[in-house]
Amino acid sequence: MSATMTVTMPIARPLQPPVGSDIDFGAQIDNIDLETLTDEQFAAIRKTLYEKHVVVFKNQHKLTPKAQYELTKRFDPVSENYGHGKTIDAKRSILHPDLKTVPHQPQVQIIGNGFVPSYEGLKNVQLRHPHHRTFHKDHIPDEQDYDFTRFYRWHIDAALYDLYPPQVTTLLAVNVPKGRRQTLLYDDGSNETMDVPLGTTAFVSGQRMYELLSPEDQEFVRTSKIEYAPHPYIWMSPARSRSTGLGMHSEGLELPDSELPEIDQKKIMVFPMCWKNPESGKLALQIHPSAVRKIHCADGTVIDDLERVRDIVYKLQRPAISPQYVYPHDWEDGDLVLFNNRGVLHSVVGAFKPDEVRLFRQCNLAASEPPVGP
């Protein structure tokens, strides 16, 4: 770079939350070329991410899958493989119908809804937006499907078996249906609802989730660990979710170990309940509620009754998904959302008509190191 050239540094501004919102995270950065980031520009973006957890870049229509992968990888240069690895027994995994791989950039996945005749080397692709009727125990009546919706599944992007959870995820909106909004129902007796954009991605802060707890519960989550089920997305496949999308009903429907792919005990993941922010050192309550199996307590005891484990986790997490703490992103074509996968939970939302085409690119990479606890 010549001495006369100047580098445009990213300028972050807070997201504009909905009226009545109490979110304390999120930023937007305009006018930055993500294809040609300098080290200084990336350092500023990284700092913003770990302060604000969700960063929106506008007008990224021309971003290539290669550049999206390289941006994602920059947060963990040793990482290489897609965050869920090679899907074992894909037909039974609950993730199987929702993902297509970019042939020339296999770490980048295509998600969305509707028929796409051609995109990035893929031909005649039929995309299926996850719908809560396929995963929840009960669902909104079909005749109300386009007016009302739910959180599909609150989660962290992570295999939770063999591979460490990705540091970050990038989501690029290539094509977004516009026009309709939906009323999101919690349907849990709380009477809580939200007005949401069609097909929003909803985010909540794990840091706020921790801060909302009582001092006693904060002590519990700081000193306890979660053990995840082996091959969790196959294990949970016959079971059904709560209406809030926050964890599962306990009806004994999970697959026994004998019906799962071969289990290597060394690949079963046990993580702290709280993960430390690499910049601020603040703690985030980061638990994938659908995949939990056991709780390891500070005194060495293990809670292995699945219904009790789920009830404990639900009571810890539920306060932070109330409407005032949720950021539902209103997608526009060309939006790239970068989020701290070790500091937020997120959920797919919405019900599309068959002819409403939604096309997104997603990239996350299995991390080179496990999350750091308190």
Automatic annotation (TrEMBL):
It is an enzyme of class 1 (oxidoreductase). The keyword Cytoplasm applies. It holds the Pfam family TauD. It is found in: Cytoplasm, Cytosol. It comes from the Eukaryota. Its EC number is 1.14.11.48. Its main location: cytoplasm. The keyword Oxidoreductase applies. GO terms for cellular component: cytosol. Keywords: Cytoplasm, Dioxygenase, Iron, Metal-binding, Oxidoreductase. It catalyses: xanthine + 2-oxoglutarate + O2 = urate + succinate + CO2. Residues 13-362 form the TauD/TfdA-like domain. GO terms for molecular function: dioxygenase activity; metal ion binding. GO terms for biological process: xanthine catabolic process. Its cofactor is Fe(2+). PANTHER family: ALPHA-KETOGLUTARATE-DEPENDENT XANTHINE DIOXYGENASE XAN1, DIOXYGENASE RV0097-RELATED. Alpha-ketoglutarate-dependent xanthine dioxygenase is a non-heme mononuclear Fe(2+) enzyme that decarboxylates alpha-ketoglutarate to succinate and CO(2) while hydroxylating xanthine to generate uric acid. Allows xanthine utilization as a nitrogen source. Whereas xanA is highly specific for xanthine, alpha-ketoadipic acid can replace alpha-ketoglutarate as a cosubstrate. Exhibits ferroxidase activity in the absence of substrates. Belongs to the TfdA dioxygenase family. This is Alpha-ketoglutarate-dependent xanthine dioxygenase xanA. It comes from Penicillium argentinense.
